[in-house]
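Deliverable D5.2: sample structural annotation.
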Amino acid sequence: MRKLPWPSIVRWMRDVPAASGERFAILIADLEDDDDHLSNTRHIVDALERQPGVEILRANAALKVGDVGRVGDARSESERTGREWLRDKDADVLVWGRVKGHGRSLFLRFLTLEDGLPGQSYGLDESTLELPAAFDKHLAVVLSGAVISAAAPAWKRAGNYLVALLRPVYKRMRALLEQLPKGLEQGHLAELWLSYGLVCGVLANQAGDDEFLQESERGVRMALAQLPREHVPEGWAQTQNNLGAALLRLGEREEGTARLEEAVAAYRAALEVRTRDVLPLDWAQTQNNLGNALLRLGEREEGPAQLEEAVVAYRAALEVRTRVLLPLDWAQTQNNLGAALKRLGEREEGTVRLEEAVVAYRAALEVRTRDLLPLDWAQTQNNLGNALRCLGEREEGTARLEEAVVAYRSAFEVRTRDLLPLDWAQTQNNLGNALMRLGEREERTARLEEAMTAFRGALEIYEQASPHYYAVLVRNNLQRVEAAIVQLNAVLLDT
């Protein structure tokens, strides 16, 4: 039997190339007690090289497994070494083990950076010496776990800038889903597609690329196809909720209301299962999301009905999402409630709703701090600016408008053009509106020219990213400020 001195292991491991990063990578260790030709290790390599969508690496070294079923120092040390190999080679799963029964059986383990699964014996086919189908099934479970772990920042680190981290994950997930591994069961396939949809959703929001929007919807719909409501009602409802989010993002960048109405339907479907009595936290999350879709619909419709429904949905969510129990969720819904109140305030006389919106935004900022949640902090600063600007338009003087400008400029500390182009464009457009109002009241072209610069910057981004609805709005704002400059110059010339 082949014995591997430690210096040889070190030397051989150094010669092993790292994973390319194009696909998820499986690192195969030489099997302990294999023959001199490593015939059984070769069986594993051959089996995995027929697995599409993954990259196969050879460790050219073995780890000692120890006695079957034994969990002790030897195995722990081997797992520590195995994880060092995974990190060193940028691989995702390590397959290791030993040969049993005169080469007719293999005892194998699977290792990831987070988990180590108990060993399993696999009898080889007597005629072909191939691994049984159970091996493919177990490997698929481990691989899908590694994939979901790589995608986890999409939901575990919400509120942070994640494009640099998630772009390579997206690339590898797409390669895997285009050529699915053998042995993948329906539930794990649904988890993979849903994770893919969530990763694409974050990239769509932060990178401003329409390709990610389409892929986000595709991922969630593919997950939904694997989750019949009658068999997995909670999983089905969760995926309906996520489908609503994907449709909402698409609807925000398209003209018309078709996608937004689909989003509302998806959220209402989720609420058929996610009831307050049975799943109060999920119910509150979906109520909050339903409010978001109704808010966007209400922005595009003349009447206040959808906006009023959005306020009802947010206030319902806040019955469960309290500041004491769920401070981050509470702040999120406070921010969203502020947006709905602000929209209603724009359509009503007086300032009551607008004042309520300012209160809601300032409450959210007590939890959404720049240090803790920089992206959410910037979003709420932008929204606070909007409410202050609307108040300023209805009040005499310029104090509220100046406060709005301060809020927008604060948002730019996080919403940069390079990192968050669409968010930057949104705040540029809003800043332009505030500066235009200030310029009109002060009768100074300097403010109006600043507004024009802000509008032009926003339009550059929107025309590149193709969110046509917003591009039309900014073009209209640009035309208005250009006309205001011409008019003011004419007045100044006459005087």
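Annotation notes: Residues 1-13 have pLDDT under 50 and may be disordered. The radius of gyration is 28 Å.
The annotation will be released with the project's public dataset once the embargo ends.
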